[in-house]
Design goal:
The complex is a heterodimer of chains A (246) and B (197). Chain A has 2 domains: 3-79, Beta Barrel (OB fold (Dihydrolipoamide Acetyltransferase, E2P)), CATH 2.40.50.140; 82-242, de novo design (two linked rop proteins), CATH 1.20.1440. In chain A, 38% of the residues lie in helices and 22% in strands. Chain A is built from 8 helices and 8 strands; from the N terminus they run βββββααααβββαααα. In chain A, helix 2 packs antiparallel against helix 3, helix 3 (111-125) packs antiparallel against helix 4 and helix 4 packs parallel to helix 7 (212-230). Chain B has 8 helices and 6 strands. Helix content of chain B is 44%, strand content 11%. Chain B starts with a helix and ends in a 5-residue tail after the last helix. Chain B is globular and about 65 Å long. Classes of the chains: A alpha+beta (246), B alpha/beta (197).
Chain lengths: 246, 197
Amino acid sequence: MPLYKEQGVVLRSVKLGEADKIVTVMTQGAGKVRAVAKGIRKTTSRFGARLEPFTHVSLMLYRGRGQLDTVTQADIIASHRNLRDHLGLFAAGETMLEETDNVAQEHERNVRLFLLLLSGLRALDARPADPVSVAESFLLKLLSLSGFHPSLTACAVCGAPDPTLFASGQGGAVCANCAEHDAGSASCEALRMLAELAEADLMGAGDIHPDEQVRREGRALLYGFAEYHLERRIKSLPLLSGSLAP
Amino acid sequence: MYEGPIQDLIDELSRLPGIGPKSAQRLAFYLVKAPPDEAKRLAEAIVTAKERIFFCRECGNVAEGDLCRICRDESRDRTVLCVVEEPKDAATIERAAVIKGRYHVLGGAISPLDGVGPEDLRVQELLDRVERDGVTEVILATNPNLEGNATALYVAALLKPSGVRVTRLASGLPVGGDLEYADEVTLSQALEGRREM
């Protein structure tokens, strides 16, 4: 089937040649797909804004012999336009796209990841009070989905309650008896905040608004854990921690 | 694959953006077969451009000296600034001859995934110019894509406290296009920016 139909969310696009782009799409049925959109950078392109990142699209694709497919048709299902018009929502959305791109495998079906991304973008498009909380809740869910659910309320090794230390390599929060040499301290407020974000549904996560100091500590633990297990630096982190806030 | 100068030429050409090994080979053989004058002209044009082209200290556009042609022109309005991502965008707008003011080239757009943050762009220089030259209007002409839009939002938020009028290029239906091919985002933006007739 050289020509196939899919729906997906556009993760990113990079320029190719004179007027083309390579778009990376997280599809529902075919995993992550990279495809060429010909002539998309021309003002008269029939693709217009249909293949901009964040957009949920219905696609007709042509599977070529090489690594890249070709987009032959695209229609918008949801544009998630608010993410384009507000810097805070943009920053939170970029984190979601980056992490999905990191975790997803090309041509490997992952419907749960696709649905998680879609719910994350929908939650942001509803203009939550705190977009950063939504992005961090999303990241925790993405880690769980990838098999790296951090232990937050009990020691990751022995299961003892109220752990006070945190070691990414040991699986999250740990008690003093089980901690290895590289464990760092973690306040119970920061661990509670992360546990709350992990449990909340994405639509409700935007109402969680922790104290700034607790948030900073929780974020450091979360991103340290995510970068350790996903083995990649999270490039959009400075965006989320406020470097875009003028 | 080849020996000596021809392989050197292919290697150098294939380092250029958008030129793969096959294209480099095709260009190299074209140049070798071309009349000596043609190859010489190309070589001289490259060397001259490299020696004589600088970036304007005012606006960041390409210039033959310290200042570019537009910044040297005293008849251009200092109080209107058109902010673009790249020098080629300024050239495109200049071709339409619709801006009587001057330009400011940012040198790119905010793109966290490519490692480009606000600190990598000429944003501070823009704020300094706005304050120094008594600018009354800043026209944000960054690309109408995700990165260009984020950059425009960021610059607009920075300029807001100064009280200067900040405008953004309109987005909408391309002249000569068909309405039936317009996508929902473009169409809704066109509708928001509709005008009284």
